[in-house]
Design goal:
There is one protein chain. A hairpin with a 6-residue loop joins strand 3 and strand 4. This protein is of the alpha+beta class. It has one domain: Alpha-Beta Plaits (2-Layer Sandwich), CATH 3.30.70.330. The strands form three sheets. The protein has a four-stranded antiparallel β-sheet.
Length: about 110
């Protein structure tokens, strides 16, 4: 099975933030609201399994400026959303197409 997510691309002034340990019942609007306390949120994406549409427990937030992104990381990392401490960090990539590959079990 191959899981592919297409995410918005952050431009040079913006910051793409990875948010981990998200509660399964958290909505994108609730995640956006949490980050708006630190500045302007350009986009929010909670990653889901393409086949089952169940959340995978992480997502991405693009903040309007790098300064706002750094503020969000400092302010929100380790804080609780719906009873779970979230992990907030700079995304490894600025944005764009991300791929995950899972090997199918071999049938003998």
């Amino acid at each position: 099975m191959r899981v592919t997510a297409i995410l918005p691309v952050a431009n040079e002034e913006q910051m793409n933030i990875h948010v981990g340990n998200l509660p399964a019942d958290l909505t994108e609007q609730e995640l956006k609201t949490a980050f708006e306390s630190c500045g302007t949120v350009e986009s929010v994406e909670i990653i889901t399994n393409l086949r089952t549409h169940e959340p995978l427990g992480y997502g991405f937030v693009i903040m309007q400026t790098e300064a706002q992104g750094l503020s969000a990381i400092e302010t929100l990392n380790g804080t609780s959303l719906k009873g779970k401490a979230i992990a907030v960090s700079r995304a490894n990539r600025p944005g764009g197409r991300r791929k995950s590959h899972f090997k199918k079990p071999q049938v003998r």
